[in-house]
Amino acid sequence: MGPYNGKMVAYIRQVLVALSVLVLVFQAAAQNEKGLSNYLKEHYPQWQAGDVVTADLVDSIFRLPYTIEYIEVRREAASYLAETEQYSDLAFLTTHIAEILVSNDRPLEAQQILFEVMDLIPEKEIGAHGLLESALGVSFDLTNDLGQCVQFFRSSIEKFNKDDELRFEQVVPLGNLIFLYEEQALYDLALALNTQAMALGREMPAPQKHYNLAYDYATRASLLTSLGLFDSVAYYFDLATQQAQQTSAVSPKVFVKTMAIESYLEQGDLESVRQYVVDDPVAEMSALDRPDVRDHYLVKAARFYIADGTAEKATPLIQLIEVPLSTTAKVDYYTTLQAYYFELGNLKQARHATDSLSKYSAQSDQEHRENNLALASLELEREQLNEQTEIAAQKRRRQNIALVGMSALLALLAWSLWVLYRSNRERERINKALSLTHEALVGKNQELERYIRSNIQLERFAHIAAHDLKAPLRTIASFTGLLKRKISGRLDDKEHTYLAFIERSTSSMGALIDDLLMYSKANSQSLDITKVHLATVVQEGLRQLQYQISEKGATIKTSNCDITFFADALKLRQVLQNLISNALKFHKETEPPEISISAQTSNGMIQICVSDNGIGIDPEFHNEVFESFKTLHSQDEFEGTGMGLAICKEIVEKHGGQIWVDSIPGFGSSFYFTVSDEAQQASGDMGKQLRADLN
Predict the structure, then answer these.
(1) Over the stretch 643-668, which tens digit does the pLDDT of each residue have?
(2) Residue pair 337/353 in contact by the 8 Å Cβ criterion
(3) 143: exposed, middle or buried (Cβ count in 10 Å: 0-12, 13-18, 19+)
(4) Higher-confidence residue: 2 or 270?
(5) Which residues contact 48 (CB under 8 A, 6 or more apart)?
(6) Which of 103, 341, 546, 602 is a Cys-bridge partner for 349, taking CB atoms 3.0 to 4.6 Å apart?
(7) Alpha carbon of 643 to those of 455, 548, 568, 630, 648: distances in Å?
(8) How crowded is residue 296: how many other Cβ atoms within 10 Å of its Cβ?
(9) DSSP conformation letters of 351-394
């Protein structure tokens, strides 16, 4: 937009603001509490019982149905809130008005009232402006002005981040941006924003947390479907379903079902679709106050019946659907109608649907081209703005440096005579200070050397102590066994219990010593970095665990493991064996273990995931499970020393990576860890020399 056009837009907006002020002046009689109360009593009988306080009045207005017949009372309330400078409530109420107008295909009218109110609210009300900009993004999306749409969504997210009370409101523009980027096939941007939305959703209080996470998990499954990464789709739909069931709202439940039907239809998996199709959609949709969510579900469910060969079941669904507003939704709608009428043999209606589909498909293609061009232009403008900002910052830095240099030069000239006069005494003071500093540095170096030497000796002591403890422990175990066999017939039940307790304790102590040795090696030994083939390392680890896998009847699946990178193959296998062994151990008694091992490469890191269908881990223990000697279950339930995951953490961190877990009780666990694609041995020169001296 050129400078002349920009001035014209600003001038037009000023004129609109002036007109809105005139309207507010003429409506002054209705813009006070008494006038508004009288208006409501006249038009809405429920307020005739007597005067109500302002807070109750506004709260009642917020609870009115989101339909066009209540638009005037909301406008009256907005005028009152504007006069009384209740900016937060005014912003919320205006967004409600805009949503109603947009849902009734009046986006330009919604934009007008949003801009008017935005000019009335002071700029310091950051959160209120964020609410209005988020609603403007929705309205510009409907008018297919993608540049304005993205800018308002991004701006609203920035403002919500600056307002602690409204920080969680950014999930709305985040969700809209995700769908926008997904529609434009910008999946990397959509996934990044989806990850941000999920992290924000987990921080929310219930039930808002469950409401938003249902949408976020279902959206993640939809994005993975679009990318062809089907392995994790069912996992995220299960999470979304679980979150939706924990809220009383209907829309997230319907949304999850819609996304699942669409995803599994794309995969051609009709059996999986069946579990998400509602038996009585007419009854279920009657409780839903979101026409867009309702119609989206009905279109997808109708398409399933057509694909399933039971098109007659789609008839009541087709009759409920209203023609959508957006071009993309119209293409989806007429695609379903075309298939429906062809399946029923109604060629006349099928041709009509085909004509409409051709029309809106061409329009959709044109809009996509324009939107892609708008996005490219927007990104170019952002890059140019960032470049100009950086140039201006560099210029300011050079000016500051020049100013500081000039000030320093003047100060140097001003004090030169005094420096010359005091030079001899100052030189002596500096020499003395340098001498003291040198002595302090020598002392610090000696202290550091003692610390490193002590740490290395402590590592060696732990290794030697653990190693030397195994001999007397074996002796105890052997003689306990001999004693049991020799006098077994002369012992009573209590004495047999004592011997069994000694044997179990000896076995537990042996396992603990083995784990201590392993932890000591993981902590003290340097890495033997070679080029490794992940699939080979996985197969070697599975061979080591073949007996446990067969005993449990476990199913092992691998994907994307045909990659090579630099790592310590032996220690990498140790991490995988620990994670697989845990998945075998902590499985549900009602079903055999199902374990999935996958990998992906991103930003110079290899991310490996080991997922299972086991008992899961409560989120409050997700960090504690990696601590040494930390167990979440008693020895009677599951044996273990609590060192396995601590060893994994030590090995992964030596590879320059991180390890974490994502799990919900009853829904299995997914352990992730990363390894640098160019792992290096991280031993300092002083540590190497001290180890050589000690050896």
Answers:
(1) 778 888 888 988 889 999 998 888 89
(2) yes
(3) middle
(4) 270
(5) 41
(6) 341
(7) 20, 19, 20, 7, 9
(8) 22
(9) HHHHHHHHHHHHHHHHHHHHHHHHHHHHHHHHHHHHHHHHHHHH
